[in-house]
Amino acid sequence: MNRKIVVGVHELETSATALEWALRRAEALDAPVVLMHSVPAAWLTEKYGYYNSIINDEKSLVHQIEARAAELAPTVTATGALRTGSAQHVLSELSADASLIVVGTHRKTGGAGDFFGSVSMQVAAQSACPVAIIPEVLSGDRTGVVVGVDGSADALAAMEFAAAEADRTGQELTAVYAARVPTQRVLKHIPEESIAARIEEERLVLAESVAGLSTRYPDLVVHQVFVTDETPARALLRAAAAAQLLVVGSHGRGALSRLWMGSVSHEVLGEAACPTVIMRTKHKKS
Asked: Which of 122, 125, 202, 216 has the CB geometry, 3.0–4.6 Å to 261, for a possible disulfide?
């Protein structure tokens, strides 16, 4: 049996899409699910007279979510749990021995919004395992798995996850690499052969990232997308506009250690309209 999948649940309605997505994955992988609900610790001090009332109501909600999970996926072992503390802290702790953390968002579309600092973003930044961010509403028929490539350790981990997921679900895989090309003001001073050589070096990163996939996954169809006129985030969002899944690394090449999440994954999470998995190769403790 695979390691557990942990779903962060808030309210039954707002957690519905993330819950169903996690349960479907658990069914396919024969993995147990933990339905994690948390309450801020400051509101659960036993000395307050209303402590028991809060606990009872929150336990009731957890039982409702357990019942809903049983309806959706009767063969999955889904266990509710109630913890005190912030959701991001509790989920970060549970990520140490989980295969995946699944959380939802309150964005109903892929439009930009005030997503910075949200629970979903903070969980993705602090988790020790991959984190799946599931939009509240998934629109239209979606196909394919898209993965961001840049040669970094996190991106290589993202490629491994995306390829395995595409092969498992019978989807085609699209690997996207956006070369960081300077402005024309800079390029005009560089000999054309030097520009061509550098572009070829960048293209090689993409080719090397997908090398070996055909051997490990002989039935997997892999597309390579190399762009020079878009930022990595824009290229990924465009490629994943109708995808089933987008996979990106938490940090790419050149990410500053003082930043808790790379700019590409930050922008993608803010706007992606499909389920998005953030890969991490190591856990940075605060």
From this structure: 125
CA dihedral of residues 76, 22, 171, 270 (deg, nearest 10): 180
Whether 128 contacts 95, CB under 8 Å = yes
The structure tokens listed for 277 are 């998995």
- Residues with Cβ within 8 Å of residue 196, at least 6 apart in sequence: none
State the virtual CA torsion across 151, 153, 158, 164 in degrees, nearest 10. 100
User: What is the rounded distance in angstroms from the CA atom of residue 263 to the CA atom of residue 233?
Assistant: 8
pLDDT in tens, 254-266: 433 323 345 677 7
Q: Please give the Cα distance from 252 to 156 (Å, whole number).
A: 10
Domains of the chain are 1-139 (3.40.50.620), 140-286 (3.40.50.12370)
The rounded distance, in Å, linking the Cα atoms of 34 and 278 is 19
pLDDT tens digits along 7-41:
999 877 778 999 999 999 999 999 999 999 988 77
Q: What's 4's DSSP letter?
A: P
Cα(276)–Cα(131) distance, rounded to whole angstroms? 8
